[in-house]
Amino acid sequence: MKNYKVPTLTIAGSDSSGGAGIQADLKTFSAIGTYGMSVITAITAQNTQGVFSVEELSKEIIKKQMEAVFDDIPPKAVKVGMVSGPEIIVEIVDSLKKYNPEYLVVDPVMISKSGYSLLRPEAKENLIKYLIPMAYIITPNTPEAEEITGIKVESIDDMKKVGQKILDMGPKFVLMKGGHLEGDAVDVLIGKDVFEIYKSERLDRKNTHGTGCTLSSSITAHLALGYDIKESVRLSKTYITEAIRYSFDIGKGVGPVHHFYKFE
Ligand SMILES: Nc1ncnc2c1ncn2[C@@H]1O[C@H](COP(=O)(O)OP(=O)(O)O)[C@@H](O)[C@H]1O
Ligand SMILES: Cc1ncc(COP(=O)(O)O)c(N)n1
């Protein structure tokens, strides 16, 4: 059930073309029916054809944004996306520890669909050491899961094995996304006493800019609305599948998914 008075927060990078990052997150928070807020970590000059430049914000302004939000409108659930550099991660982790939100969804954004690195290599260690262990749920795609564990992921069996390794790093749940594998689009949810497979048909679509951002924001919004983890992932898997089905051509490259397909 929608409730536009339930606050949700995204801590992520800005995508000037509106298909991924903060912009996708806020659209998703609204489409699912929550009150969306944002802490911007970095600004990208980006469109459907690629990422052309990235400028990180200072850790001071990130801290101030977190204070401003949490002191006034404590979010029910928080999502972290692009975090860019090692100092920013430390700042975000410190603030999250201080405010201790009920649900923390971590989307370990590393490389854009267009192949641009959105996480500086020297930031990987802090992501693994500090951010991943505090997540309620982390949502890696297969290349990200490989980066985190150093193990190849080429099958659903690999997703289970590597997902378990990531679970051992401390998060409560891991959602291994299988969009980069062949065949059906299969995601695997792993927790201490939880193991669920979410399968959908693979849609033959070119416009998949922002799929990961949209899925993790949808999970965040559903958790904030009171759904449990399995139901939040199930409803979000349906949402992303339909958003991909109705994705559309805008711009000259890889266009966005349709966040508001339900409202057409
Ligand atoms: N062509 C597709 N058809 C249907 N679902 C897809 C397709 N590509 C990705 N998905 C789904 O979209 C979500 C994002 O997946 P993925 O592409 O693995 O992550 P990311 O966008 O972070 O790279 C997952 O639920 C995945 O199963
Ligand atoms: C600011 C920002 N955050 C995240 C992504 C990843 O999205 P995708 O993997 O769909 O390119 C992106 N391109 N830009």
UniProtKB/TrEMBL annotation:
Keyword Cell membrane on entry: no
InterPro entries attached to this UniProt entry: HMP/HMP-P_kinase_dom (IPR004399), PM/HMP-P_kinase-1 (IPR013749), Ribokinase-like (IPR029056)
Domain (Pyridoxamine kinase/Phosphomethylpyrimidine kinase) ranges: 15-258
- Show the catalytic activity: 4-amino-2-methyl-5-(phosphooxymethyl)pyrimidine + ATP = 4-amino-2-methyl-5-(diphosphooxymethyl)pyrimidine + ADP; 4-amino-5-hydroxymethyl-2-methylpyrimidine + ATP = 4-amino-2-methyl-5-(phosphooxymethyl)pyrimidine + ADP + H(+)
Q: Look up the EC number in the record and give it.
A: 2.7.1.49, 2.7.4.7
Domain of life, per lineage = Bacteria
Keyword rRNA-binding in record: no
The entry lists its GO molecular-function terms as:
ATP binding; hydroxymethylpyrimidine kinase activity; phosphomethylpyrimidine kinase activity
Ranges in coiled-coil conformation: none
The record ties this protein, via Pfam families, to: Phos_pyr_kin (PF08543)
Q: Name one GO cellular component term.
A: cytosol
Q: Which GO terms describe its biological process?
A: thiamine biosynthetic process
Pathway annotation:
Cofactor biosynthesis; thiamine diphosphate biosynthesis; 4-amino-2-methyl-5-diphosphomethylpyrimidine from 5-amino-1-(5-phospho-D-ribosyl)imidazole: step 3/3; Cofactor biosynthesis; thiamine diphosphate biosynthesis; 4-amino-2-methyl-5-diphosphomethylpyrimidine from 5-amino-1-(5-phospho-D-ribosyl)imidazole: step 2/3
Alphabetical keyword list: ATP-binding, Kinase, Nucleotide-binding, Thiamine biosynthesis, Transferase
The Swiss-Prot or TrEMBL record describes its family as follows: Belongs to the ThiD family.
Descriptive protein name = Hydroxymethylpyrimidine/phosphomethylpyrimidine kinase
